[in-house]
Amino acid sequence: MTVPAPDPVAAPSVPASVRVRLAHAAMEAALAVDGVVAGHGGPVGRHATFDRTGPLVGVTAAAAAPDGYDVSLRLVARPVPLHLLAGRVRAAIDRRARRLGLAAQLRAIDVRFEDLEETS
Fold first, then answer.
1. What is the pLDDT of residues 23-79, one digit of tens each?
2. In this structure, what are the phi and psi dihedrals at residue 19, rounded to the nearest 5 degrees?
3. Of the four, 50, 69, 81, 99, which is 20 to 30 A from 24 by CA?
4. What's the angle, vertex CA 61, arms to CA 20 and CA 103, rounded to 5?
5. How many other β-carbons are positioned within 10 Å of the β-carbon of residue 83?
């Protein structure tokens, strides 16, 4: 199940949690990497982070001690060297987290490719 990432539209009175902000930052960074097509819900379609904007399919952020979060992504990619692509995705997420002031909360970054999408 491939679903593009929704735009994070936050209610002004309720700020998003660090967990949700990291999930959005990770998916946005991943989708900006050439070769990544979309997020993927995983084998049963439930690999997602849920917040007030709805599901962000393809990424989870799980609590990791101390005071941080492990980020896990399931992605669809074009047919490219996936090991190299995963490294670029991790680097992009790290840069985005630093820019947003979330680097201190970011722990492990797991990147898996669930499907390939041929370009025509």
1. 999 999 999 999 999 999 998 889 999 988 889 999 999 999 889 999 999 999 999
2. -55, -50
3. 81
4. 80
5. 9
